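R.M. (postdoc): so does anyone remember the format we settled on? I'll just put the structure tokens first.
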């Protein structure tokens, strides 16, 4: 026979209360005691459940309070990113004109486009700070904007160093700029349709990555011919400029990777 003892620390007899609750539960199950219905299931005279609030109509609430517009995804980022990519492509096309005709006017145009591209990025970042519900991850928007902006930045620094070092463009340099232009075109095309045609946008991004590989081969080919020369100073100057164009292609490759990540998350 078991003996239950109540300690001084348990004056209310919690163990005893537990046993009584179990006994009451057993009586409910046997039907000896009618279990009262919960308050939210009791019905009033009209048949409606008293104490039952029902499902909240969030759609009505958001419309009434203006939150619907506030919570709506901000689709402006698609256009802003595309505008930025278009400006980057414009900068590379201006660089291509410069390496074909290195005139002060063409150099100035590259710098003007780079400044315009910086303003596009500033507007996008400010919009990103203000937006409550961007259409994609904030980190992806920020990173893609930065990668695209870096492409036109490298175009500007290429012009700067060619002017500072007083070097003329050669065939390797013109070929590398053309590869960069093609990559920038693919990035611009991908961002343009990323919202409505993500799979096709991914194909453009993959093509941009292909041009980065092409740029890498062109870069090493240019270095191989450069190291055959005897003028060490010219070798150092041209190597620095080649490296800028190779880095620009790397940033295009990074932008393509971000585009693929955005598409993967959306689909």
């Amino acid at each position: 026979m078991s003996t239950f003892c109540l300690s001084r620390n348990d004056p209310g007899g919690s163990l005893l209360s537990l046993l009584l609750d179990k006994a009451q539960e057993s009586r409910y199950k046997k039907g000896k005691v009618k279990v009262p219905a919960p308050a939210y299931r009791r019905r009033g005279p009209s048949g409606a459940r008293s104490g039952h609030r029902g499902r909240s109509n969030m759609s009505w609430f958001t419309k009434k309070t203006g939150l619907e517009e506030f919570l709506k995804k901000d689709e402006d980022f698609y256009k802003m990113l595309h505008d930025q990519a278009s400006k980057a492509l414009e900068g590379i096309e201006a660089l291509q004109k410069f390496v074909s005709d290195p005139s002060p006017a063409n150099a100035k145009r590259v710098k003007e486009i780079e400044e315009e591209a910086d303003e596009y990025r500033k507007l996008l970042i400010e919009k990103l700070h203000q937006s409550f519900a961007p259409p994609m991850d904030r980190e992806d928007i920020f990173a893609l904007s930065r990668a695209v902006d870096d492409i036109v930045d490298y175009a500007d620094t290429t012009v700067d160093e060619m002017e500072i070092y007083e070097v003329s463009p050669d065939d390797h340099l013109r070929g590398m700029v053309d590869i960069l232009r093609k990559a920038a075109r693919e990035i611009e095309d991908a961002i343009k349709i990323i919202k409505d045609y993500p799979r096709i946008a991914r194909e453009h991004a993959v093509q941009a990555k292909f041009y980065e590989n092409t740029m890498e081969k062109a870069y090493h080919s240019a270095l191989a011919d450069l190291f055959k020369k005897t003028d060490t100073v010219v070798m150092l100057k041209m190597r620095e400029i080649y490296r800028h164009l190779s880095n620009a292609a790397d940033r295009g490759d990074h932008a393509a990777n971000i585009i693929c990540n955005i598409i993967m998350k959306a689909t």
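R.M.: ...and that's the designed sequence above, right after the tokens. Also worth knowing: Residues 1-13, 38-42, 46-56, 64-68 have pLDDT under 50 and may be disordered. Residues 232-266 form the longest helix (35 residues).
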